[in-house]
Amino acid sequence: MSNEIISDNTTINALPDIKSMPLPELTEAVVSLGEPKFRAKQLYEWMHKKMAGSYDEMTNIPKSLKEKLSNAYSFTSLQVVDVQESKLDETKKFLFGLSDGNVIESVFMKYKFGCSVCISSQVGCRMGCRFCASTIDGVVRSLLPGEMLDQIYAISRITGQKISHVVVMGSGEPLDNYDNLLKFIRMLTGEEGMNMSQRNLTVSTCGLVPKIRELAGEHFSINLALSLHASNQEKRQKLMPIANKYELSEVIDACKFYFDETGRQLTFEYSLVAGVNDTAEDAAELVDLLKGLNAIVNLIPVNPIKERNFAAPTRENALAFKNKLEKSGINVTIRREMGRDIDGACGQLRRRHLNEK
Ligand code: SAH
């Protein structure tokens, strides 16, 4: 893991991003331009309720104000660079272009319970998990709140579907972009915007212990998913460099704290890698580790990336692993490998795009 400082500021191309401003901040900005307060509410509604892609759509905003705003602020509006549609299910993967030329990916998934979007929180990632494509070239920068929101808005506009669930499980480590993540959560779940239920939002982390504790202290009702991937410290260190910084026991304690503070059920993600973490002993150790926790284990047969030599277990072995956990009273799901035919796993579409360039 490198130590470069990731900028958390809210500017793109030197101008602050208007879509990243919570309503009070936007109100201040509008008033400082000599405009009445109610314009801020109108603008906020256009951006965050009606999901306008530009000022052109905002029919009740005067042209003079649009001009003033264009001179003072940038307006995040993600551009579709590529879309891949699964032939196996209704999963769609979007490659979006940002205003600085970077690309990020987001995924649309249709479930029985509604439509879900998986968003990226950074361009690239600096966490270095061995099996993950997002991290191969490190992190470029963190995403602004408006860039996280616009992945949802753009996908909702393009698919014509109401998005009921969001998972922050795309490229990047959301807790490494903490301040912008908090703004994003408040804006997504605030009633003046999309007003999504916090219970329908899940944040996935590789385990930044102090930040998990800080997030617990915010007392949101959002779900926490922890990328575990190994049931002992030694194996986890081999798969995830972050394990060198935070011991497995500290990570589990932080998750317990999150549950105690919020009452939200915990999910542990476990990418099954053949011959690495999928043995009967691994399953037994996992049972011991999670005993007494109100947890769900989400098994993900590893999605092989060409830069690494990892293979998924056979269906039979994955089921055997699942059965072992279930017999011990642990709730387990095997993640439907949605969109495997379309570079489904974290960072794979962006990676292919960068390689082609
Ligand atoms: N940084 C966050 C969120 C991004 S990754 C985190 O670590 O949780 C979302 C999940 O997909 C993580 O559990 C990650 O470890 C897993 N993942 C990434 N690449 C994968 C791959 N090739 N196969 C299976 N799971 C993968």
UniProtKB/TrEMBL annotation:
Catalytic residues identified in the record: 105, 346
Q: Which UniProt keywords apply?
A: 4Fe-4S, Cytoplasm, Disulfide bond, Iron, Iron-sulfur, Metal-binding, Methyltransferase, rRNA processing, S-adenosyl-L-methionine, Transferase, tRNA processing
Give me the residues that bind [4Fe-4S] cluster, please.
125, 129, 132
Pfam families for the chain = Radical_SAM, RlmN_N
Q: Which GO MF terms does the UniProt record name? A: 4 iron, 4 sulfur cluster binding; metal ion binding; rRNA (adenine(2503)-C2-)-methyltransferase activity; rRNA binding; tRNA (adenine(37)-C2)-methyltransferase activity; tRNA binding
Q: Which PROSITE patterns match?
A: RADICAL_SAM
Query: Which PANTHER family does the record match to this protein?
Result: 23S RRNA METHYLTRANSFERASE, RADICAL SAM CORE DOMAIN-CONTAINING PROTEIN
Q: What is this protein called?
A: Probable dual-specificity RNA methyltransferase RlmN
According to its UniProt entry, this protein's organism is Butyrivibrio fibrisolvens DSM 3071
Query: Which lineage ranks, top first, belong to the organism behind this chain?
Result: Bacteria, Bacillati, Bacillota, Clostridia, Lachnospirales
Q: Which gene encodes it?
A: rlmN
